[in-house]
Structure formats: C-alpha cells, structure tokens
Fold this protein.
Amino acid sequence: MDYILSILVFFPAVAGLLGFVIDKDSARVYGITVAAIEFFLSLWLWFSFDGTNAGMQFVELIPVIPDFGVNYYLGVDGISLFIILMTTMMTLIGIMSLSVKENVKNMIITLLFLEMTMVGVFVSLDAIIFYLFWELSLVPMLYIIGAWGGSLRVYAAVKFFLYTFAGSLIMLVGMLFMAYTYQSLTGVWSFALTDWYALVLPVSYQMWLFAAFFIGFAIKVPMFPFHTWLPYAHGQAPTIGSVILAAVLLKMGTYGFVRFSLPLFPDAAVIWITPIAVLSIIMIIYTAMVAYAQKDMKQVIAYSSVSHMGIVMLGIFAMNAEGIGGSVFQMLSHGIVSGALFMLVGVIYDRRHTKMMDEFGGIAAVMPKYAVIFGIMLMASVGLPLTIGFVGEFLVLIGFYQVSPIMTVLAGTSIIIGSVYMLTLFKKSFFGPVTKEENKNLKDLDAKETWSLIPLVAIVVWLGVYPKPILDPIDNSVKAMLNFMDEKAITQEAKDMIHVAKSTKEAK
Amino acid sequence: MLEPIKVSLESLNLITLAPMLIAIAGGLIILSIDLLKEGLHKSLYVMLTVLILVVDLLSTVGLNINERGFFDVMLIDGISIVSQLLVIVGSIVFIPLALSSKRFHEYSYPEFFALFLFMVAGFQFMVASDNLILIFVGLETASLSLYTLIALHNRSNSYEAAVKYFTMGALAAGFFAMGSAMIYALTGSVELYKVAEVLATRTGEADLMIAIFGGFVLILVALGFKLSLYPFHTWAPDVYEGASAALVGYMSVVPKVAAFVVAIRIFGMYIDLGVEWVRIMILVIAVLTMTLANIMALVQEDVKRMLAYSSISHAGFVMAALALDTTEGNTSIFLYYALFMFTNLGAFAMLWISRHKMRRFNNRYDHPYEKFAGFIKIMPIGAVIMGLFMLSLAGVPPFSVFWGKIYVMQAAVNAGYIWLAVVMGLNSAIAAYYYLKLVVYMFLKDPVKDVDTIYYNISRPLMVIIGFATVATVGAIFYVQPLVSYIYYMISASGY
C-alpha cells in the first residue's frame, strides 16, 4: 500500500461526494461505515508504520505545478501518525454519537469533507498543500456551526472563519517569502517542507518569518490574546462541532508549531521562548479562572480546553524531548478527553435542552452510568495519575522545568485550579439532592451513547497506565527533529537551549 | 506631382489583421442574414457568433510571435496573443448566456450579436498595437459597441447605466486623446517603441519630465476610468446594476484585460525608463483601489453591486502587479484574469439564472441578499455551486482565484514588495467577509418567502455553462501549470 496516505485523505471526500446519492434515512449508517473504514485504514497505517524509523514514511511526491514548486507531497512520522489516528477515531465516534435530528445527511457529508481536510493537514509536507487543506477545513466547520448551532450561530461561525482566515493569510505571505528565499539561494522554486528544512536563515529573517507563521498558528491554537473566537464557536456549535473543533482543529495550530516553526526557525524559536511561555502561562491561569466563573457547563469545558492548550504550547517551547514529546502526547489526550467531555455535555443537553449548572444537581443518583463516565473524563482532564491526562502534563512540566522552574510552578497551578473548577462543576451538577422535578426522570445513557463513550474511557485508562507504544514513536521523531534543530541553529544560545544529548540519556 | 505610393502586399503582412477581420466579417454576415430573412431565433445567432469566434481563436493561435504588420502599426507579440486569446475565450464562454429560458429584449435583435463581434474586434485591435492612435480607435470601437449593448437591455436603469458609462467613457477617451497628443508633442511619435527611444535619450531634462508627468497623468486617468480604479470607479456599481448579469460578468473581465494590456505597454515603458514616480503612483492607486472598494463592498445590499465592488477590488489587486514591472508580475496579470474569468462567469451566470422579469424582493435591486436566503433548501446544488464560486472569489484554496492570488502575491514578494503582499493578504481577509455574507445567506438562513422560482431563467445551455465554470473553478490545480508556463513563455518572449 504505497498510496495509503492518499487513500486516507481522499477516501472520505469521495465517500462524501457519493453520499449525495444516499437516501437521507440511511445517511447515518453510511456515515458510520465510511468513518469506520477510514479508522481501520488509519489503524493499518499504524501497523505498517515502522516505529524505529524517525523520518518520514509512506512518502508520496507528485509534482503539481513544477514551475512554481508546488508538489503533492505527503508523508507521516511519529508526530503526525497519532494525530491522524486520533482524528479518524474522533470523527468515527463523533458520527456514532451524532444527535442532530434535522438535515442529518448534510451533516454527514460535511463531516466527511471535514475529515478529508483534517487528515490532509496532518499528512502534507508541502506548504501550499498544507495551506490548502488548512483553509479548506474552515468551510465545513463554518457550515456546521452556522447551520446547526445555537441562537448566535451565524455570528459565531463568521467570527471563527474570518479570524482564522485573516491569520492564515499572513502565514501565506510568510510561506511565499520562504519559497522566494529558497529560490534565491538555490535557483529552484520549492514549497516542500523537507527542502525548506535544509535552509539556514539569518536570525533577522527567522524572526520575521516566525512572526508571520506565529500569527497563523496562534489564532488557531488559540493563544491568549487571540482566543476570543473560541468561546463563541464552542458556545454556539452543536455537540459534534465542539467535539471536532476541540479534538482536532485546535491541534492544527500546535502541530503547525512543531512541524513548521521549530525546525524552520530554531534560533527565532529560542528567542521567542520567554514571550511565548509568558503568554502560555497567562493563557493557562487566566482561562482556568474564567472557566471557574462560568455557569454554563459547555463554557467551562471550552475554557478548560484553552487552558490545556496552554500546557501544550509550553511543552513545545521547552525545546527538549520531554517537553515536545509530552506536548504531542498532550495533544492526543486533550483531543480525546475534551472531545469526550463535550460529548457528555451534549448528552445532557439533548435531554434537558440546557447546559446551565444550576439547572442540575444530584444527577449521579438518576444517571449513574453517565456520572461514572463523566467522572473518569473529568479526572483525566484534571490530570489524575493513571489517566491519559497525567502523562502529557507531567512530561511537559518536567520538560519545562529545565527551562524555568518558576514558570513551571506557575503552570503547575493549572492542575490545582483545574481540579477546582472541574470538581465544582461535578459537585454542582452531580451530587446533592435532586432539586429539580424535571431531573428526576432523566434517562441514563442509551446504547448508542454508551458505546460511543466506552472506547474513549478504555483509551483514557490504557494510555494512562501504559503510554509506551505511543510515546516511543513520538519520542523517536521528536529527538530526530531536535537533533536536526541543534545542528541547524546558528546562535550559541539556541544550541544551548535545545537539549538533545542530555534528554536522550535521561530518557533511557 | 507626388509619386504614387507603392506598397507591396507582402510587406503589409496582412495575416496580423486576420483575427480582427474575421470578427468584423462575422458581424457583417450576421447583419446580412437578418436582411435576408427576418424573425430567426436567437439561438442561431448565438451559435453563429460562437462559431465565428472559434475561427477567430484559431487564427489567433496560428499567429507568429513578434511580428509587425500593416505599416508596422500592428504588433503581434506574446502579450497581444495571450490577451487576444483571453478576450476571445471570454467572449465564447459569455455569449451563450443569451440562451436563457426567458426571452429578453436585447437578444431578439441580431444587431446585438453584430455589435458584440465588432466589440471583440475593437478589443483585439486595442491589444495588438503599440500605436497610440490605433489603440484609441480600438478602444472607442469596443466602448461604443459596449454602451449600445448595455442600453439594449430594455429597462430604465439600463439606459441610465449606458448613459453614465458613455459619459464617463467619453471623458476617458478625451483624456486618452489629450495624453497621446502630449506624448506626440514631446517626442514626435505615437509609436510607443519610438517614444521610448526618444525618451531614453532625454530622461535627464527636468522640464521635459514635468511635461511627461502631465501626459502620464492624463493617460492614467483615462485607463483608470476603463479599469474602474479608485477614484475613477464611481460609474462601475451603477453600470453593473443596470446592465444584465450576463453582460456584467463579461464587462468585469474582458474590457479590463484589454485595458491592462494598454497599461502594461504604456506604464511599463515609463517604469523601464526608470521613472520611479510612475511606479509609486500606480502602487498608491492600486492599494487604495483594493482597500476602499473592499470596504464599500461590505455595506452593499445587492449581490450584483457587491460583485461590482469586488471586481473593482480585484482590478486593484492586479494593478499592483503591474507596478512591479517584472515578467512574473505581468504574467500574473493574465493568469489572474484567466482564472478569475471562469469563476466570474459562474457567479454571474448564477445571478442570471435567478433573474426575474419583475423585481420580487426589493423595489430597487434585482438580487438583494434576501433573495438567496435559504437557497440550500430551495436548490441545494445551485447553492453549493454558488458557494464554491464565492469561496473561490474569496481566495480559498484550491479554487481557481486562489492560484491567481498566490501568483500575484508571490510576484510581489519576489520583487521585494513584501508589504504589498501583506496588504494583499489583509485585503483578501476583508473581502472574505462579504463573499461569506452571501454564503451565510444561502446556507444558514431560512427562505424569506416562497420563492420556488428562484432559478426562473435556467435552461439547458446555461446549465452546461455553469457546469463548465464549476469544473474550471474546482479543477484549477490541474491546469495552472500549463497555463503559467504558456503565459510566462509568451510574456517573456515579448520582452516584458
């Protein structure tokens, strides 16, 4: 299967096109089947993936616009592999648990197109192809939020679109400049990432280019102070929209940092460590506090999601194997956990049509299964040991400790504040007497919901206890990248900062 | 007694005139058919026009590059071939829009099609010469035909549009004539290559430069009107509103391509001579055009007016590429319009099929946004296609306009104008808002009233055209490479 990546990218799109023909009552089953096939294809990718090889695998390269240096260039390494797996899995589970009643067929088709763009972003090794999928992913999301969302849906959808679109256009200028620099040095046009990696740029260039890419990625993450679109998008989006947004779309930003910003501009990245770390810590603490102040369960999770993305950012800029590896792992765990939490809020919303915490209370007595799963996910989100959330957070904090102990302590408070707002949420909604009459007869999870959530619970526990099968390939690729950055860095500070050898020793 | 002038037919190189003559002869044929038998259906004329244009196209393809002919006033270089091809292809794809299911006044006259062909010939003359007089003649032939075509659309605001366009066009023509006269007075020639030779020897003279400045400004104003650049754009929205959607789509591409060729020839010459303020003025105008037109497009209530402002903004975008005066910059102009043409064709064809005889939604506008509310529920495929065109115009990859945009931006970066590329990027972000507004209306709102006849004017040929435009828009990634290399080759062969 040489072309497995192309199949992975275009299978959902082709299925989406064919989906127009499917009768609308059968669309759901069609969607689940397609997403399942896609998931198994991605599993196949994992099994045929060589975990000891740190480089790009399953590479495909077809020139598209050679005069312009645009190639259809795909490949996957340890960093992107698991994000792709998570993407296909969350799409499958999202479609399985889909609770939208109207226009189900349109929703399924949109989700399948969205899946194409998401997988496309994570396998592209050509900047223009990356940009293409990156921008294209906005369109289905716009439709999902705008068509199935809450009362302010159009505003939220347009804000989401314009905010990210504006940011990525600046990034596009950066990409064009990068290609121009490559052309002026080598005489050949190329947007291929592997070609760009070979380019050693002066620090002043790196700073500007880093800034251009930073705007594109930071809006997507979303970094403080560019995060204002996210609460609206989450607040208005339907459950499935929030799940995909939190689980996958936000990861595009952090993935961009790992794939583009760090290896392309190692010196600039090192210079930017402190500002970005400060922003990340503000993001971690501030949004955690905002989360505590929310009355709406979904907003709590939305803000906690921003807070956790702060941890991911911090880890990336730790510039060592623990930090970056932990970040990549945290991306996966955050995707699974916050996706599951949004799904759980969706469950209760479908029953009561409200997400306000004070409308609930004592639900644990009425819906025991629901309460148990919610509890597990909540613990994972807080970062309880032996859950998936702990591994990533712990590695990130260890990693960043080598950069700045004080900042690490500040970032560590996120665990405390996190448990405060999460447990408050849990207490208010689940414990105590059942105060509202409507809540006394709520149905517990039905089969569809249970079977969507059980796999996630299993993964949360499995990877919490034994993360090695995933951490190893990630670690390999991350170390290869760090080695490469170390060689490429031109300033001494950068070389000092990028801890390669030391980390390699410690990890063994 | 004067010696009789002897000119050998050989030296005239009449083949350079063949494409225009074919178009003119075609127009005459259509008129004589009407004389012989009245009351023929418009489909006959449409197809005849297409056939004549195809012959025209083939004869243009067959031209040798870098030849002069007809007393050396005709100049067949790469630019002129590429732009003639664009003009003809644009005409071929737009004229079948006349085959709508409803009858419209103008298409019942064969004169419409004859005038259309004369207009094409006019544009071809305009781009295939570097003689200011012939350019002027071509410009006027095309413009006068176009005014009439607009007025033939039998509505009060079409007359308004035609008169407005005519007045502004006449003013522009006046400016062009004065500018040419000024150049002639300074250099003793109306042939641009001779003008360049003369100017090259005298760039040091300050008083001459002031006079040249005057001549340049006059011509810039004239072309500014034709290209609807800020601040000479004010006619455009009203004219677009008054004319039929089919013609507006045409007007927003083909005449602009022709005018850009003239601009490349004249302004490119100045910039080559090292007159830096020409470049600065063009850049300022280009940036103002794209930004202000974008901002005005934000507040429009009618889709056609919005598209009018958006096409002004696109013209500003391309104008900026002109100021770069690099081969890539000039290539990007044609590439942009070639790609823009298909999307624009589609977008205006969609407006055209939703055109009612009476205004059902608004007393003033034919295509208010409300008309498209809930389009997805009424006509799902139509909504998706229209959405594609809007996203393409907004520059979302991988649709056609994105590749034009990225090439223009790349040309700007290569020429060292990174700030320009950033301005272009930010403008695209502003522009996304108003295109998105239509998408939002179509997909996210409920229909305002029962509008089952929103695709009132559709017919099979129009569906074919729209299908073609959709394929060309979506599949752009597959033909950008040959297009770029062909245009680049042609432009660099003609030394721009």
In short: Strands of chain A lie at 57-65, 70-76.
